[in-house]
Write a structure and sequence with these properties.
This protein is α/β, with parallel strands linked by helices and 473 residues long. It is 46% helix and 12% strand. The chain has 18 helices and 9 strands. Helix 2 crosses helix 6, helix 7 runs antiparallel to helix 8 and helix 15 packs parallel to helix 16. The longest helix has 29 residues.
Length: 473
């Protein structure tokens, strides 16, 4: 009966044993592989120089794969690494007949150990080994892409996302962002403190006094905007973005408009300036005054053409959003680049058979990565659960709570700011109870419940949702 270790080796080497199907000898260097194995056996402590990126599947040669597996077994179990222990543990792992001739691994291991040994060349050997491994993986990946390309049922974006995901997976081996010395950490921290006071990128404001007191648009912010469906969340964001763009010419928006199409968002910007509803702008039983038409034309020339907004109007995977926004930021150095995802529940996922909570956790984790990699602000638009509509909330005027947000709590955890948007006019029983207050059906409330600076509070607006006009009280 095959042992677990023999099966493990067979699984890791299965793809490499099929190279003959490709018709060419894959990139490899047996002398480099044996040189690395020899060095690790002759200088046992050297394994810790490369342990974070040392795997049997990185080797092409079968014997070297098995010896690498045996060396890792010794490290994991605290067994000293030398010629005798490696030979013994190869037998323990039931790999002796695969390493040696006539089930005797001693001869082959002795040959490798006595032929090559250079501790000074360890990192060089390891670097070449890994580069050759990546080349083999890219050849396999190219063949997989070709197979998917011939499949007419495969979506092109699935091919792109899967390919980028695999490339990024291998690229992560070269990233050492988790290793930071105190010298660089302290320098970066002090620079950040100074930049909060002097760097214009950290001081972008909407020029709405009550908004700027509680809501910050600056590097590394993740702003979670929650509200009931149809409450006007997107229109509130349009108000904020309009003010932000007017007041700050160095702001760029990457807007994933997965709920409202870009033309509807643009009409909302026009509504703010003209005080016409979306229906009126569409000409539904309404004739627009020629002067207003002239104003709209001027808006394009004097305002919209100067704004840097890029819309994506289709449900997208978080990997696509991450890749796209990284490129968006890269091409706009020195600008505040703001990512808007409206809404996060429309993000497509490829986490097969996972529960929704797990999917939310993974998407939230990727959003956090986007923030860390780009150091730019992100706005996540989210919906409330049906619990917010329960009659028991009438006594509190249906004031929303963070617990009303749908899905996993992970979205709340990664957010540096949380804004709960409330439109009292959506609750007829509330309007009836306070019918002597006619202003209630024209009130909108932004409840800032979380802020990095612990500045929380309520911002009240009077407004007209149809014309997208809001005024702070």
């Amino acid at each position: 009966m095959e042992t677990k270790n023999r099966k493990t080796w067979q699984n890791t080497s299965r793809i490499l044993n099929d190279w003959n199907q490709l018709g060419k000898l894959p990139p490899n260097d047996i002398k480099i592989e044996e040189g690395l194995i020899s060095t690790l056996i002759n200088y046992p402590t050297s394994i810790f120089q490369i342990i974070n990126n040392f795997k049997p599947e990185h080797f092409y040669n079968q014997r070297c794969q098995l010896l690498a597996q045996t060396i890792l077994h010794c490290v994991e179990h605290g067994i000293p690494i030398d010629l005798i222990s490696i030979c013994h543990e190869a037998r323990v792992l039931d790999l002796q007949d695969l390493i040696g001739v006539n089930a005797s691994p001693e001869y082959e291991i002795s040959r490798i150990v006595s032929t090559y040994s250079s501790q000074a060349m360890l990192e060089y050997y390891h670097k070449i080994l890994f580069q050759l491994f990546l080349k083999r993986q890219f050849i396999i990946l190219g063949n997989e892409m070709q197979t998917m390309g011939y499949d007419i049922t495969t979506d092109i974006f699935d091919i792109i996302d899967e390919t980028i995901e695999k490339i990024n997976k291998y690229g992560e081996f070269f990233i050492n962002e988790d290793k930071q010395h105190m010298e660089s950490v302290s320098g970066n921290t002090i620079d950040a403190i100074v930049s909060q006071q002097t760097d214009p990128i950290s001081l972008h404001k909407t020029d709405i006094i009550k908004v700027d007191a509680l809501i910050q648009f600056r590097a590394d912010e993740i702003i979670l905007m929650g509200g009931k469906s149809g409450s006007g969340k997107t229109k509130f964001i349009i108000l904020l973005m309009s003010q932000l763009l007017k007041s700050n010419p160095d702001v760029s928006l990457c807007w994933y408009a997965m709920e409202d199409p870009p033309d509807k968002i643009t009409r909302a910007f026009i509504s703010q300036a003209t005080h016409l509803s979306d229906s009126q702008l569409l000409g539904n039983d309404y004739v627009i005054d020629p002067e207003i038409i002239s104003m709209i034309v001027d808006l394009k020339k004097n305002l919209f053409d100067t704004w840097d907004i890029e819309f994506v109007n289709r449900p997208s995977r978080i990997t696509h959003i991450k890749r796209h926004f990284e490129q968006f930021v890269k091409h706009r150095p020195g600008r505040l680049c703001l990512l808007i995802i409206d809404n996060i529940m429309l993000i497509e996922d490829n986490f097969d058979n996972d529960a929704q909570t797990k999917i939310d956790d993974k998407i939230a984790g990727e959003v956090k990565k986007i923030s860390i990699l780009t150091h730019q602000p992100i706005i996540l638009v989210h919906h409330f659960t049906d619990a917010q509509l329960e009659k028991s909330n009438l006594s509190s005027a249906y004031r929303p709570r963070e617990s009303n947000l749908k899905g996993s709590t992970r979205y709340r955890d990664i957010s540096t700011q949380i804004i709960l948007w409330n439109n009292p006019a959506q609750y007829p029983d509330l309007i009836e109870q306070y019918k002597d207050s006619p202003w209630l059906d024209a009130m909108f409330i932004a409840d800032v419940t979380k802020n990095r600076n612990n500045k929380t509070g309520i911002i009240r607006f009077f407004g007209n949702l149809a014309t997208n006009n809001f005024y702070t009280i």
